[in-house]
Write a structure and sequence with these properties.
three-stranded mixed β-sheet
């Protein structure tokens, strides 16, 4: 390939990369006093991009739909947030809780992720948007300008996407690295590949007992090591 053509191709490829990602803005707060948490390391686990929150707990990071962000700071439990596939809020409020590292708590217990209490807490972060009233067919006729408002439509779109976002977050929190590593013994790239290949769906996890969930991981680890087909994974 001529050098000029190669350079043009490289330029075009690089030029398309920013379109895949977008700017994610937000702040990190302490759950107890709601004060900003500075010095939090935020990593996009798909791109290995790492930034830190400023003195006001604020952050700006590039991430594409579906990518996973990890928020880490010594003395705090790790928080993982997957960028929604649909509507993305213009501003993220991340709540961190002081505590021992998750890997230690997992080592002491096989308990699964407490979805109910965490979901209630997360709902509080977006209470204004989620509690914003939707308009019925009659309301749309009576208030056409409100129905066509760009801001209102964005909020309603966020409400529609939030359920799917919650389901993906449930899978991320339940099928997490610490639990999977404990039951498979995998680490590093092998662990990440296994988790992508055998990631269960929300519907699967909700119907699994603790025993079935842990057995799901161990069974698929066996097939993974023997290059077999996944059992029950999508």
């Amino acid at each position: 390939m001529p050098a000029r053509a190669f350079a043009l191709l490289l330029f075009l490829c690089i030029g398309t990369l920013p379109a895949l990602a977008q700017t994610i803005r937000g702040e990190v707060l302490d759950i107890e006093d709601r004060q900003p948490v500075s010095g939090v390391n935020i990593e996009n686990v798909y791109t290995n991009l790492v930034i830190s929150t400023d003195e006001n707990g604020g952050f700006i990071i590039a991430a594409a739909n579906g990518q996973l962000l990890e928020f880490k700071k010594p003395g705090y439990k790790t928080v993982r947030v997957r960028v929604p596939e649909g509507y993305i809020p213009p501003y993220f409020r991340i709540i961190m809780k002081k505590g021992i590292p998750e890997i230690q708590s997992v080592a002491k217990s096989n308990n699964r992720y407490d979805y109910t209490s965490d979901s209630i807490r997360f709902h509080e972060l977006y209470k204004h948007e989620l509690d914003f009233p939707k308009m019925s067919g009659i309301d749309v006729i009576a208030h056409p300008f409100s129905a066509m408002s760009g801001k209102n439509r964005e909020v309603w779109k966020f409400q529609d996407d939030f359920d799917e976002f919650e389901k993906e977050r449930y899978v991320d929190k339940t099928f997490n690295e610490e639990v999977v590593a404990k039951f498979t013994g995998l680490q590093g790239d092998s662990l990440h590949y296994f988790m992508r290949r055998y990631r269960p769906t929300y519907q699967q996890l909700k119907t699994m007992s603790d025993y079935a969930f842990f057995n799901f991981i161990k069974t698929n680890a066996y097939y993974y090591r023997n290059a077999g087909s996944p059992r029950g994974a999508q």
